[in-house]
Amino acid sequence: MKIYRSALLRFADDGQAVYDSDGLLAVAPDAQGVQRVVAAGSWQALAPQYIDREGVQRIDLPGRLLAPGFVDLHIHYPQTDVIGAPASGLLPWLENYTFPHESRFADRAYADGVADFFMDELLRNGVTTALAFATSHPTSVDAIMTAARQRGMRMIAGKVLQDRNSPDGVRDDTEQGLIDTETLIQRWHGVDRLGYAITPRFAPTSTDAQLRGAGELAARYGDVWIQSHVAENLDEVAWVKQLFPESRSYLAVYDDFGLMRERAVYAHSIWLDETDRKLMHDTRSAAAISPTSNQFLASGYFDYIKADEAGMLYGLASDVGGGMSFSPFRTMQAAYVVGRESLAKQGLSLAPGHLWWQHTAGAARALGLQGVIGNLQPGCEADFVVINPGCTPLLARKTGEARNLDELLFAMIILGDDRLIEQTIVSQAK
Ligand code: GUN
Ligand code: ZN
């Protein structure tokens, strides 16, 4: 067993941040060799049970903060090198930059190189779990799963299904894409900490037959995830209306093909109406909110007020490479600033603890992994970060003067980036 002495952040079941300025975190391996949280709380209350016990290693981290590893609810590993590609909006961005770049992932050696860099970049930024798109090439999934497994990370990913309105090099074949998806589920889902996500890119690039097949797989493999994009951009919404005139709305296309259920995550979810939001709630599907991507591609903004009224599940996501940064701090910053625009009219803003929750325990809940990751309550897998709140002169000044938890978290959200993350510890590190 290891016990850490440091400031400690975790979350209660209702999403409230719980903080100990002098905390204790005890972790120990379970029968499978996964490190789990055994105890978390104030040093004073817990230390007598743990210190000076045989087999207990004590690690003191003065001036540091231990917090749950971040969970990125939507990211594209093959777009690591697409960050910062300028375009007038989503559809030209896909056509001119993203699709040509993704065609390179047919080459396994190239995919391996990017997957290794991507995984190290996640860890450098304190992200311990992500729900990730690969490309349409099955080997791109082998590459990311291999890289995640080598690092002992809990990673969920899937091969992109896109059998129409896509250029040569990324377009797959309807039947073969579904066969490959099932093969990859059987090869990777549940291996160590890995999970598979059925991944139709978005409704415009899949035929009815492909979406139907994806829905059948989703019914057959009930604990596999589903990920796609929805209602990100108004041109995209108009295109879906032309392609699927029978469906009530863009979101309803996915429902019509059996792709809305628990463990389904829809990126963006901006241009939804009340009926759509109810559908998200009723099916326990979740929205991945990507504020830096929505800013970069001028897509619009996620409506927190209406999402909360509908009781929707949601969490934060970088959406690299539409998004601008791997850093959860940059994503939380953008969510706050964008939220100012939309919420200030009602005299509201997003509280720092709520922003942090959306990128940790809230994102874990959206994945159906509450109590497993994204938190540091007893029983959780011990994926966590060691934060140095004084990592820059300005942050040292600002966090040093924080009078309460909100001020401390806010200083890091507004001024922070990868420099805050001193160490990322993964519960099954090899
Ligand atoms: N919609 C379909 N594909 C994509 C993608 O790669 N990125 C974003 N942001 N939206 C999409
Ligand atoms: Zn995306």
UniProtKB/TrEMBL annotation:
It is an enzyme of class 3 (hydrolase). One of its GO terms (molecular function) is guanine deaminase activity. Its cofactor is Zn(2+). It catalyses: guanine + H2O + H(+) = xanthine + NH4(+). Residues 66-402 form the Amidohydrolase-related domain. Pathway: Purine metabolism; guanine degradation; xanthine from guanine: step 1/1. InterPro entries: Amidohydro-rel, Guanine_deaminase, Metal-dep_hydrolase_composite, Metal_Hydrolase, Metallo-dep_hydrolases. The keyword Hydrolase applies. It holds the Pfam family Amidohydro_1. Binds 1 zinc ion per subunit. Keywords: Hydrolase, Metal-binding, Zinc. Its EC number is 3.5.4.3. Catalyzes the hydrolytic deamination of guanine, producing xanthine and ammonia. Belongs to the metallo-dependent hydrolases superfamily. ATZ/TRZ family. This is Guanine deaminase. It comes from Comamonas terrae. The gene is guaD.
